[in-house]
Protein: N-acetyltransferase domain-containing protein
Organism: Labedaea rhizosphaerae
Amino acid sequence: MLLRPISPADLPELLTVNNAAVPNVNELDAGRFAELGGMAELATVATDGDTLLGFVLAMAEGADYDSANYLWFSARYPRFLYVDRVIVAESGRGAGTGTALYKAVFDHAGPGVPVTCEVNVRPPNEGSMRFHLRHGFTEVGRQDTEGGTKTVALLAAG
């Protein structure tokens, strides 16, 4: 498995993988995906040869990002690295891809900087919640999003 920065050539396949993960993440079009990648402090893809295994986009404090979940952490944490999305493709499941991507996030954040994220609890994303709890995350809050149609658990580690 190779971890490397996301390149513009990756965009079409990353967008397909992202949108296949709805409702666990929000659907994006190419323009919005490129915008998020541009504001990300960390934009990393995991590959095995030509096979995409997964990717992560993470934003640091101070980003010009309008996500309700990012803004929740901005109001409460002076420093943090917010995992906006970490998605493991079908080809990367069970191969340690998620763990490798999160190791890159924690390494990038460095000591004393919390890594933060959200996980859907309504509708439930039980697999993601188990993964995050197993990797040291704890729930630090909850909020309703998308006009009350979703509830997320806000998590932090480190």
Observations:
- DSSP finds five helices and seven strands in the chain.
